[in-house]
Amino acid sequence: MTTAADFSPDGYRRLIGSFLDTGYEVRNFDDVEQEKPHLILRHDVDQSLQAAVQLAKLEANIGVSSTYFVLLRTEMYNPLSRDGMDAMRAIRACGHRIGLHFDASLYDDDRDIFEAAAERECAILETALEEAVGDISFHRPVRSLLGLPGRFAGRLHVYDPVFYSDMAYCSDSRGGWGHGHPCDHAAFDAHKAMQLLTHPVWWVTPDADPVEKIGTVLDARLERLHRELRDNCEPWSNATRIDPAETRAEIPGRIRR
Ligand SMILES: [Zn+2]
């Protein structure tokens, strides 16, 4: 039985530990073997690059490497801002890979249009990172992209049947194990490969409740925007004499939940 406490930094260490203790090796999408005890660690960064950095450091401490899939076109964060670039570099410095998290809902539902758009987004990420982006995952994937065999925009993609339907797949969507705990999966007992998708925000933020975790991300974002306005917008700066070290509750316009 999974409890909310399992979705914590210690819980993540225990989860990965239970794979390593039974002989699993952490692999990437380009060197995984289906019949072997190989574990692919995939993270879709939906809400917060800062949460991703925290998980990247935790993983470096336990000696595993993973792939962080970053959205280029989201309202939640800006990977090309100074904070965003610092975060992606920090993730890389921990020995992890950066992939593209592609939101197909922003484009017309057409395979050629999707691939051209993903190619453009990868090129932007590659220019920013000064390195190749070899893997793509889909954000809330549209039906036409699930189970698409072969490469997408010239790159590996995580919903290729070889990583998805032909391989064990577990995800912590909505902050829980909706389709069962990874260690209860038949593949775990059989020592076969698994793709494990986890979202950093569920693991690194301290509050137990998923809504509170998202609230923590929202508060941190609001505080960051407040600091940016204080430093760059004089009317706001003059009107708000708040030390950002003080409580977030004092920021004018704070969203009440
Ligand atoms: Zn996503």
Topology, please?
Layout: H1 9-21, E1 25-27, E2 38-45, H2 49-61, E3 67-71, H3 82-93, E4 97-102, H4 111-129, E5 135-138, E6 156-157, E7 168-171, H5 186-190, E8 194-198, H6 200-204, H7 210-232, H8 234-239
Parallel strand pairs: 1-2, 2-3, 2-8, 3-4, 4-5, 5-6, 7-8
Helix pairs in contact: 2-3
The structure holds zinc ion (ZN).
CATH level 3 topology of the largest domain: TIM Barrel
The level 1 CATH classification of the largest domain is: Alpha Beta
* Major sheet description: 8 strands, parallel
| CATH architectural category of the largest domain | Alpha-Beta Barrel
Oligomer: single chain
- As a percent range, the share of strand residues is 5-15%
Q: Give the N-terminus to C-terminus distance in angstroms.
A: 30 Å
Number of domains: 2
Radius of gyration: 19 Å
How many strands? 8
Q: Name the ligand types.
A: zinc ion
The secondary-structure class comes to: alpha/beta
**Number of alpha- plus pi-helical segments:** 8
> What is the N-to-C order of secondary-structure elements (H for helix, E for strand)?
HEEHEHEHEEEHEHHH
Percentage of residues assigned to helices: 25-40%
Rounded mean pLDDT score: 91
Shape: globular
Indicate the low-confidence ranges by residue numbers: none
Keywords:
257 residues, TIM Barrel, 2 domains, 8-stranded parallel sheet, 8 helices, 8 strands, globular, binds zinc ion
Protein architecture, described:
- It contains eight helices and eight strands; from the N terminus they run αββαβαβαβββαβααα.
- With 257 residues, it is an alpha/beta fold.
- Strands 1, 2, 3, 4, 5, 6, 7 and 8 form an eight-stranded parallel sheet that branches.
- Helix 4 links the parallel strand 4 and strand 5.
- Bound molecules: zinc ion.
- Zinc ion binds next to loops.
